[in-house]
Amino acid sequence: MSPSAEARPTSAARARLLGTATKIFYAEGIHSVGVDRITAEAQVTRATLYRHFSGKEELVLAYLDQADQGIRGQVGAAVGSAASAAGQVRAVARSIVDGIRSPGFRGCAFLNAVAEYSDPAHPVHQAVLAHRQWFLDTVTELLGRVGDGGSGLSADAAGRHLVMLRDGAMAAGCLFDPELVSETFLHGVEGLLREVSTAAPEEG
């Protein structure tokens, strides 16, 4: 058997472990789930898990990294779908409400995780902060390109405001009517765009 053929089942086992952990961590929380539950549902042994991950913490970090990469791809696709900066902000907002409206939505994976890891020095906490900083930087840059240099809301303030709107929508979206939450969030984003620049075009 070739080395590449030997690597395939190993890679498949890792993917199965991560997929199982992702489903359970997101739906039920992290601390409440042990490695025995994960290995049982992934149909692998504990030894297989420890061949791929040093322990549960590394598996949690892999779960968050996968979520981070997924959101970066989602935001990148949204930005690429519109021509103007205002349209790109609207597209990012629509991608967020698509998640809120999706079956099985349980809020923000990162906010959920950090609620279980309150120590700022913990690697999981740090991973959440890094993801949030990236998102803040991304929307702030987009909003900066919407602004016309006038006396409107600064891009920094608007970026922070958009992140807070997004956090509120993600928290409320799994507690209340997701359609109403989504509509309220999108309305708030439109208000931000008006604050940043009254010249923001109504497109895309």
From TrEMBL:
DNA-binding segment(s): 34-53
One Pfam family here: TetR_N
Key words, A-Z: DNA-binding, Transcription, Transcription regulation
Alphabetical list of Gene3D superfamilies matching this protein: Tetracycline Repressor, domain 2 (1.10.357.10)
PROSITE patterns found in the cross-reference section: HTH_TETR_2
PANTHER family: HTH-TYPE TRANSCRIPTIONAL REGULATOR LMRA, TRANSCRIPTIONAL REGULATORY PROTEIN
Name the UniProt record assigns to this protein: TetR/AcrR family transcriptional regulator
Species annotation: Streptomyces violaceorubidus
Taxonomic lineage from the root: Bacteria, Bacillati, Actinomycetota, Actinomycetes, Kitasatosporales
